[in-house]
Design brief:
13 strands, 134 residues
Length: 134
């Protein structure tokens, strides 16, 4: 999507962008808002954490539990020591927890959602020390 120009139109209650769709070579006026969609199609939302080392190099930590509150469906990818494990959480009106058992030296994660409106809060991970590896 290429933004050609931006204008504020108070009657519409937002900012109007003139955008071009590269596939159709058409110019389309689009109202920018917080619905996370483009031309009524939900946009994919992605958040990626940095990689972190969880140990001093001799002991692995084990991810035991994942905590999350989400209003929409979310896919959580856990990256640990070159492997990926995926979990899906449905939107619920209460906190969720999932038991897992993933030993690792390094850890990062990615959250993705295709839902139009998706709020994520109180994401947490419970780790325990694992056995020593030499």
């Amino acid at each position: 999507v290429n933004v050609i120009s931006l204008s504020t139109i108070e009657a519409l209650g937002g900012v109007v962008a003139l955008v071009s769709d590269d596939e159709k070579n058409a110019f389309l006026p689009t109202l920018l808002c917080n619905s996370a969609s483009f031309l009524a199609n939900p946009l994919k939302k992605v958040w990626i954490s940095p990689k972190t080392k969880l140990t001093n190099g001799h002991n692995k930590n084990c991810l035991r539990k994942i905590f999350i509150e989400t209003s929409g469906e979310v896919k959580l990818d856990i990256f640990c020591d070159g492997k990926v494990k995926s979990f899906t959480f449905k939107g619920k009106d209460r906190p969720q927890a999932k038991r897992v058992s993933l030993p690792m030296f390094e850890f990062s994660f990615r959250l993705t959602s295709d839902d139009n409106i998706c709020s994520i809060k109180n994401l947490g991970f419970e780790f325990i020390k694992s056995k020593s590896y030499f």
